[in-house]
Amino acid sequence: MLLLDPSKKISFNRCIRDGDLVIVYERHDTMKAVKVFENSVLQNRFGVFKHSDWIGKPFGSKVFSNKGGFVYLLAPTPELWTLVLSHRTQILYIADISFVIMYSEIVPGCLVLESGTGSGSLTASLARAVAPTGHVYTFDFHEQRAASAREDFERTGINTLVTVGVRDIQGEGFPDEFFGLADSVFLDLPQPWLAIPSAGKMLKQDGILCSFSPCIEQVQRSCETLRSNFTDIRTFEILLRTYEIREWKMDCSKVDDGGSVACPPCKRRQPSGEGSMRDNSSSPAVMARPSAEARGHTGYLTFARLKCIL
Q1: Of 43, 59, 76, which residue sits at a domain end?
Q2: 299 appears as a binding residue in the annotation
Q3: Where does this protein have coiled-coil stretches (predicted)?
């Protein structure tokens, strides 16, 4: 496993072993999680890769196939795991996850309650945030989904930091054993307002609750419920815009007549001469444009702090 006991510290500062999970990177939009076995092979468009060649190499290594093609073997960090995991439900992505961890004030040693587990995208990042001495207790009402998440956490080596439970938090609330112990509670539920009273009982004084909702109507009703026992209620929408930065060859010999691209204006006088015109007929230029695959709205994040009882 990638988790080093007994300190429970997540670390990838060692070589790949038989049985490890690695992220095989082909290109920025093509990655997959692969478990390493001594006698197994990986076949893709670049050729056949023997797992036995991977064992003993450090994470981040470049490995070659029988055809000379190559891939990179990356560590299964929470960021990369979010990009390759099986989508059993809608997941949170990196922008939302990082904001949740920061605004919920989650640090090493925290005890965090989560419902529902879903695909486990957020859970993996929460586990790293609370390591080495904290713990994440995550609940999902769907038994098979919880079992699949438990298997994923074992594969990624964070199972000693995460406990998965099967429970309908909306109907039953959180288990009484966590009464007053949680530093933070995260809710990703269709009707979060039903679980807010229970979440408030689980939080420590001055603890923080975060609720993720895809619809603003859910946010409005949740905020109405929060006002009774919580303060500093805030809602955010995280919009992430990704840009592609590429170098293009611009043909300066063509005139911008509506269909072709001309050279950008230049303030410096160019030297005259036939050779100069020939050298500048095609020049590189850096172009930036928004990515066509960029994700926009994912949902709303509502944060609230439990009122202190004096």
Answers
A1: 76
A2: no
A3: none
